[in-house]
Amino acid sequence: MKESPLFGPFAEKWVAQRLTPKGSPLRSKTSAEYRRQLGNGLAPFRSMAFDDITSAFVREWHAARMLDGPTQAGAESRLLRAILNTAIEDGLKESNPVTSAMCKATTGKKYRPPTLAELGVICQAIEDRFKLAIIIAAYGSARISEWRALQRESITFVEALYEGRVVEQAAVRIMDQAIHTTEKGWERTPTKSEEGERVVFLHPMLTPLVQEHLRRFVGKAKKALLFPSGTTQEYLPDWTFWPIWDRARQAAGITREVREHDLRKFAGTSYAQAGATLRETMKFMGHGTPAAAMIYQVDTGRGAELAARMPIPAALSIEMMRPADSMQI
User: Fold this and answer.
1) Residues 6 or more apart from 310 whose CB is under 8 A from it?
2) For residue 115, what are the contacts with CB-CB under 8 A and spacing of at least 6?
3) What element of type H or E holds 168?
């Protein structure tokens, strides 16, 4: 009788050969996370033969992992289930002992976007060099991996009609993200999905803030980072930004229920409330999984107009817009 192969070597090869639904290799961050899971939560399976991975063993393993946290347990279960599905396709196993229920990640924690007033306090309390980062997340839908990759050339100014006057409006071109893995260090890669490549417009009242940031904190070179780490042109690590974010969040009287990522929720909600169609909102957010009804909705090119309708907190009220020809960087 043929000996059942070991899970560990098969799983390593699985990660190396895995393709995305679009047929491209896994991103470095994704493959690094899979390998991390294989070396940590899924470590008990590495030396096991496929025949020994039974429903009873998986249930016991999952129960133990749930004690450490449902989110991680769910992620590890999804990876284990996917690998075992491939093993079934290869004829190495007859059925999958990982149930769909194990793959769910219910933490019980409820997250929400900040209120307009809370956002105003955060913008006031955050260090000046990161105020624009908060704005680009809350009003431009950028993920932290996206806004830390932005460069001077990512910002352009276009003429827009606002309250009966021609003013300058900032446009942010989001094309890349900067991610860090223990295997490769910093990498500049395309956005999370092809749909993530987008140009978003900021409210016209925010133009002076954008210009001030460019003058004070950004080098003159086109490739100069908008939010470098310290005085160097290094990418800003998460572990450097989180304490700064936490202090600003605490100043607003909020803690774990509002994460930096929830600024994207504020952006998406505000954009939709400004009158955007589902298609326009998906383009604004960089999402690419439309429902069937989406086929009958179109992108109308109203990005600048919709951005001008989004609410601005009182704390960010800036001087009245000057004519476009008087605004210079």
Assistant:
1) 139, 203, 270, 271, 274
2) none
3) strand 165-174
Q: Where are the alpha helices (DSSP H) in the chain?
A: 7-17, 28-39, 55-68, 70-89, 116-125, 128-140, 144-147, 207-217, 238-251, 262-273, 278-285, 303-309
The amino acid at 113: P
Check whether 296 has a pLDDT greater than 90: no
- Give the pLDDT of residue 158: 94
Sequence letter at residue 241: F
Give me the amino acid identity at 182: T
The four Cα atoms 80, 83, 84, 87 give a dihedral, to 10 degrees, of -160
pLDDT in tens, 55-97: 999 999 999 999 888 889 999 999 999 999 999 999 999 999 9
**CA angle, corner 287, sides to 280 and 281, nearest 5?**
20
Catalytic positions are: 143, 261, 264, 287, 296
* CB contact at 8 A, 288 and 191: no
pLDDT of residue 105: 72
Neighbours of 135 (CB within 10 A): 26
- Biggest CA-to-CA distance, the chain: 83
Give per-residue pLDDT as tens, 120-170. 999 999 999 999 999 999 999 999 999 999 999 999 999 998 888 999 999
